[in-house]
Amino acid sequence: MKRKIRLTVETHQLLVISRTKGSTQGWCGECAGDVPLVRPEEAAVLAGVSPRTIYRRVEAGLVHFAESPEGWLLICLSSLLDESRIESTPMRP
């Protein structure tokens, strides 16, 4: 007689970003608010993907972005976290 065992694993992760110059805050037009902004390389680490994937998500409109006065691309952390939650949510049958 075979028995089925269902095993559920729940994980939690805490990530702390610390900068010597303080965090970058900026306006996100999509969020209509002042939000934390991160560089694409930092966004990639946070999302667990490559920087190229972050650029693809920007191009596809999946994450919000802003440009610094110097022309650097900055990713809206709020939209990145929302997108990452969507990507990591398993599809239910």
The tally of strands reads: 4
- The gross shape turns out to be elongated
Low-confidence stretches: 89-93
On the 0-100 scale, what is the average pLDDT? Answer: 83
The number of helices is: 3
SSE-based structural type? alpha+beta
β-strand percent reads: 15-25%
Sheet with most strands: strand arrangement: 1-2-4-3
Protein described:
With 93 residues, the chain is of the alpha+beta class. The protein is 31% helix and 19% strand. It has 3 helices and 4 strands, in the order ββααββα. It has helices spanning 40-47, 51-59, 77-88, and strands spanning 24-28, 33-38, 65-67, 73-76. It has a 4-stranded antiparallel sheet with strand order 1-2-4-3. A hairpin with a 5-residue loop joins strand 3 and strand 4. The protein is elongated and about 70 Å long. The model is unreliable at 89-93 (pLDDT under 50).
Task: Give a nutshell description of this structure.
This protein has 93 residues and is α+β, with helices and mostly antiparallel strands.
Question: Secondary-structure blueprint of this entry?
Answer:
Blueprint: E1 24-28, E2 33-38, H1 40-47, H2 51-59, E3 65-67, E4 73-76, H3 77-88
Antiparallel strand pairs: 1-2, 2-4, 3-4
Give me some keywords for this one.
single chain; 93 residues; alpha+beta; 4 strands; disordered C terminus
